[in-house]
Amino acid sequence: MGVDGRAKRFLYEDMTALLTEKGCRLTDQRDTILKALLSFPLTFSPMDLEKLLMTTDPALGRATIFRAIDLFLEIGILEKIHRESGDDVYLVGSVGHHHHLICRVCGEIRDINSCPFEESIHEIMRKEGYSEGYHRIEIEGICGVCKKISEENTESGERSLGSHGGKVRQLH
Ligand SMILES: [Zn+2]
Ligand SMILES: [Zn+2]
Fold this sequence. Notes:
Blueprint: H1 12-21, H2 28-37, H3 46-56, H4 62-75, E1 78-81, E2 89-92, E3 99-103, E4 109-112, H5 118-128, E5 138-141, H6 144-155, H7 165-171
Parallel strand pairs: 3-5
Antiparallel strand pairs: 1-2, 3-4
Bound molecules: zinc ion (ZN) (2 copies).
């Protein structure tokens, strides 16, 4: 795991290499959007990306941004994270098969690089006569830092867990 608890997160060069590998052209518009992705160290919503690009490149249309997101998801430059709240968010991809551990308070993402599910999934597939498996599993919880803050607040009489999201994000 890297310093930020993530596997090898794609750099700009990795993303452009993936595009070329999949036979997609690096247009000026795609290049602008790729570079914008790098300014999100954690997850972001389509709205976050749209807002950022509207200030830096107002000429980019909404449809262009969304088409690029779809393409990037398809070729693995971006990963989609399904949140319990129902608001899906995106994350710049990282190398190799991995799973995500997501803090629902501060949004921190950790990669689990060894797959703890491989064996049981293989067993299920074998029983059902399936082959060529692929799975996606995300684990959402409360990270150690957020848990500690919430406990401290409970002691001092404050109760709200969620309102510390922004502050915690800085601490990580
Ligand atoms: Zn947290
Ligand atoms: Zn796995």
